[in-house]
Amino acid sequence: MSGLIEGLPDAVALRCLAHVPFYLHPKLELVCRSWRAALHSAELFRARQEVGSLEDLLCVCAFDPQNLWQLYDPVRDIWITVPLLPSKVKNLAHFGVVSVSGKLFVLGGGSDAVDLGTRMAVLQPTRYGHMIP
């Protein structure tokens, strides 16, 4: 990240971006590569915590088409579609989900195509990570 907002140190610019609601992040990602990197960074999540701009969102998995994950923002009454899980499995079933410290854990389950490499996926606000048991 460098030069997020001309004339401002990146730390200050990041705090400015921290005030932007999550539903606008996909639009802000289109501004430039440095903004996209900032919006996907752990630093932004920490800055959002520091400035108190975390949001309560309900996460829902619609099974059709292909396990589409959506976030519901009850304050704004809008649905936000998040990218597909980075997995070859397209139809999950019988899985558990829990949210801890700003991360969404998708645990276990089965599917019509077994994906041995992804037993648990961690969804962060705009990034994914894998954990193998």
TrEMBL record:
Record keyword Repeat present: yes
SUPFAM superfamilies named in the record: F-box domain, Kelch motif
Sorted UniProt keywords: Kelch repeat, Repeat
F-box domain location: 6-45
Domain of life (superkingdom): Eukaryota
Signal peptide residue numbers: none
InterPro entries: F-box-like_dom_sf (IPR036047), F-box_dom (IPR001810), Kelch-typ_b-propeller (IPR015915)
Pfam family name, one: F-box
Name of the protein: F-box domain-containing protein
Provenance organism: Trapa incisa
